[in-house]
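Format notes (please read before filing issues)

Several people have asked whether sequences and structure tokens are stored in separate files. They are not. Every record keeps both together, in the order shown below: the sequence lines, then the token lines. Line labels are part of the format and must not be stripped during preprocessing.
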Amino acid sequence: MMMNRRDLGRVAAGLMATTACAGPLCALAADEAPDAMVRRLSNEILGAIKSDASIKKGDLVAVIALVNQKVMPNVNFRRMTAAAVGPAWRQATPEQQARLQDEFKILLVRTYAGALAQVTDQTIQVKPLRAAPEDKDVLVRTEIVGRGDPIQLDYRLEKTPGEGTGWKIYNLNVLGVWLVETYRGQFAQEINAKGVDGLIETLAARNKANAAARG
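Then the structure lines:
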């Protein structure tokens, strides 16, 4: 199922809202149930996004700062990138893995830059969690509501070991389509044709083109 730009914007904003954490909130999130964390952070960060004029204008510098400070601590981005790259990840050198993570991150951040400006009166409804207390890998199902039809937005989270770490997101399902699996198909074509270095070059070129288009 394909999404239009409006749906993508609402979804990216929802992801941004549900993955934020800073300061004392991170320690609190470590003890929270995953659905409670999603609900609380959604309400707090959506409010912050709506009040930030720079983000609403699509200021890339402001978006990058928000991602680095609040989003990335709550995403297992290495796992997400490795899963999107697929089997070739294990054969990639540490330098290649680092480049893949960097370029993949830029690709997603530039999606947020345009998406966050669309946040107005949206809210997120978190559905009841179907998981046992001892589960370490859970699915949190939500809907973004407020404009048009509700947007299905589900999260895969893992409980990371160690004190103060808590739950981290490693995949996202939008309207029945999982983010990692979608990119895996795209990346596999590039890897099969040009290898890992070819995928890195393609991502870098796409990011440069996006940057030029934004001026």
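For reference, the curators noted about this record: The first helix runs from residue 5 to 18. The chain has one domain: 5-214.
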